[in-house]
Write a structure and sequence with these properties.
The protein is an alpha/beta fold and 193 residues long. The protein is built from 6 helices and 6 strands; from the N terminus they run βααβαβααβαββ. It is globular, with a radius of gyration of 16 Å. The N and C termini lie far apart (34 Å).
């Protein structure tokens, strides 16, 4: 039985400014680095066998901090774990989008990657990892919208909050072909700040 730990990357300057990041390659800020270290301490004894990460810098940095603390020698980078591509909205805030494209900007074709395209690459990744790592605990460092799309697809009845917190952990296991969510959007390690 494969267990997946889905971790959202640590915080960035753009997170704080509420800018759409998408596939933009933004580094962690100081809070993001500190929170990734707190996350690593929290999960150190949980027995994670392997770590995969989006190849975008903010996720890669988070995964490397965790790997170092867990004594995992390698982080496997996979572009299928990248955040939903934001097209023309990347780098903008909500007020900037409204000013540029109007209140109904979500209805326009601004080059934002579709949910179907995200799920196609996400499910391909999950299938491959499940085959490669049967009965192992696989930690996956990715991005908020990506993880929400994936969880919504794997666990149909999961009640999800609007926002996944930075460095949050969600865990799912597959039993008899069905995915079950054991933990969702957990940030108990941040209470130790």
């Amino acid at each position: 039985m494969t267990k997946l730990g889905l971790v959202r990357h640590g915080s960035t300057a753009w997170n704080k400014e509420r800018r759409a990041q998408g596939s933009s390659n933004i580094p962690l800020d100081q809070d993001g680095i500190r929170d990734a270290e707190l996350l690593a301490k929290r999960i150190k004894s949980e027995g994670w066998d392997v770590i995969y990460s989006s190849d975008l810098l903010r996720a890669k940095q988070t995964a490397e901090i965790v790997a170092r603390n867990l004594n995992v020698s390698e982080v496997f980078l996979d572009s299928r774990l990248q955040e939903v591509n934001g097209g023309q909205i990347e780098g903008t805030t909500e007020p900037e989008r409204i000013e540029k494209w109007g209140e109904n900007w979500r209805e326009l074709d601004l080059g934002i990657e579709s949910k179907e395209m995200v799920l196609q690459r996400a499910l391909s990744f999950i299938e491959e990892v499940s085959e490669k790592h049967p009965a192992q605990n696989v930690l996956v460092v990715s991005h908020g919208a990506y993880i929400r799309h994936l969880l919504g697809e794997l666990v149909k009845d999961l009640k999800m909050e609007d926002h996944l917190e930075n460095t949050s952990v969600s865990t799912v296991k597959v039993r008899e072909g069905l995915w079950e969510c054991e933990l969702y959007n957990c940030t108990k390690h941040l209470g130790a700040k």
